[in-house]
Amino acid sequence: MTKPWTRMQDWAEVVLGLVAVLTPLWMDTSTKAMWTMIVIGALIAIDGLVSLAMPAMVISEGVQLVLGALLFISPWVMGYTSMTGASWTSWIVGVLTVAAGAIALPAANSAHQGLAGSH
Fold first, then answer.
1. How many CB atoms lie within 10 A of CB 117?
2. pTM
3. Is 80 exposed, middle or buried (0-12, 13-18, 19+ CB in 10 A)?
C-alpha cells in the first residue's frame, strides 16, 4: 500500500497547481484569465494535497483529470487566447495535470484495494 505524502505524481500536481496560481504575477493576464488560473490552480494544488494525505482516495485522481481538462480549455472558454503566456501556461499545466492524474490512478486503485482487503 502507498504511504501518505510519498507519491511523486501528487507532488507534481501540487507544484502544477501553484504554477497556475502564481502565473499572473509574471504574465500579462486579464481579470478573467487571472481568476480562472488562480481558482483552478488552487483547486489542483488542494486536490494534490488531499491525494498526498489520502493516497487510497481514487476519486481525487478523477478530480485531477477534470481540473486539468478545465484548465486546458479555459483560454478558449474564458477568452484569453490572445494572451500568449497565460494561454500556453494553461495548456501546458492542464495537459501535465491530466497526465499526472492518469499516472497516479493505478496507484490510487491499488492502495484502495489494499484498504478493502484490510477490513
1. 7
2. 0.90
3. buried
